[in-house]
Amino acid sequence: MVTTILLCHERSGSHLLGEFLGSLDGVRMFDEVCNARAIRPQSAAESFHRFRYDAIRSDPDLLLDPTTERHLQFIRAYFAYLKTLDTFSNIVVDIKYGHVVNFEGWWWPLTPRPRLLTYCAENDVGVIHLFRENSVQAVASGQISEQRSLWHSWEKGAEEAQARTHKLAIPDLIQRVQDLETEKSWFKRWLGKVRHIEVTYERVSLELGRGGELDETIAKFAGGVRTRPFSPRHKKVTRPLKDIVENFAELKAACDAAGLGRFLP
After folding, report:
1. How many Cα atoms within 13 Å fall on the side-chain side of residue 13?
2. Beta-bridge partner residues of 94
3. pLDDT at 171
4. What would the pLDDT profile of 115-143 be if each residue is shown by its tens digit?
5. Which fold has domain 3-263?
6. Are 101 and 108 spatial neighbours (Cβ–Cβ below 8 Å)?
7. Residue 157, pLDDT score
8. How far apart are CA 112 and CA 187, in angstroms?
9. What gap in Å lies between CA 106 and CA 36, rounded to an integer?
10. Is 113 exposed, middle or buried (0-12, 13-18, 19+ CB in 10 A)?
11. Residue 11 in contact with residue 143, Cβ under 8 Å?
12. φ, ψ of residue 201 in degrees (nearest 5)
């Protein structure tokens, strides 16, 4: 049985790739297990927070007398538990950059490799590292989604929202882009000798589900087999930024000034 982590940041195409992974024979996809808003701890069996709550109730020493070994046993137990929730041979678990901290114990100096990735290296857990090469588009997509209160193309009102334009908060966007660039570089370094593959949003949006090399590589890595056509509910419908950002000229100038002009050629 293969366990794979889908490691990614927000607005990276994780739902589209997750749909593809879940469509493979022999694979169970667990979506954003650490996102308490998406996977509700009160009702979702796969919720990391639900599992941690039950584990602490069963063994309060996880909090009252924490040790490295006790914490590692807890992490092992969580992934072993996910495998009991279905009869599928292999599982893929979506964990965002911002949720990696949930797998730390009581201390993490921030810059060394996160404990989750150390666990992956020591237990031969593979990682699909999904990221968006164009960080400006990733962050702008997040701001636009926040303004629309719509995050996915299949949500009610998403199609109608495409006609709207938006004024972005440029200073905040530039800071977020710089932070995302740093995060991506750190995770690439942290992955080190972890068994992993890198996949970009740009490639996923163009090639996924078309029966080519990308499909084969991802399916093989996750331990699944593609036997049926892939018809995702997720659709790439957002218009180019220059068409929907009201203050695009300001955005372009700010990116140029911050050394990010390559993202808006």
Report:
1. 27
2. 6
3. 98
4. 999 999 999 999 999 999 999 999 999 99
5. Rossmann fold (3.40.50)
6. yes
7. 67
8. 10
9. 21
10. middle
11. no
12. -55, -40
Phi and psi of 126, rounded to 5°? Answer: -75, 155
Give dist(CA 263, CA 251) in Å, integer: 11
Residue 97, both tokens: 């950059």
CA-based nearest residue to 151, from 35, 6, 71, 30:
35
pLDDT digits (tens, 9 = 90+) for 144-162: 989 888 667 666 766 777 7
State the SS3 of the chain.
CCEEEEEECCCCCHHHHHHHHHHCECEEEECCCCCCCCCCCCCCCCCHHHHHHHHHHHCCHHHHCCCHHHHHHHHHHHHHHHHCCCCCCEEEEEEEHHHHHHHCCCCCCCCCCCHHHHHHHHHCCEEEEEECCCHHHHHHHHHHHHHHCCCCCCCCCHHHHCCCCECCCHHHHHHHHHHHHHHHHHHHHHHCCCCEEEEEHHHHHHHCCCCCHHHHHHHHHHCCECCCCCCCCCCCCCCCHHHHECCHHHHHHHHHHCCCHHHCC
Instruction: Give strand pairing partners of 25.
Output: 225
Read off φ and ψ for residue 210, nearest 5 degrees.
Answer: -100, 10
Task: Give the residue extent of every domain in the chain.
Answer: 3-263
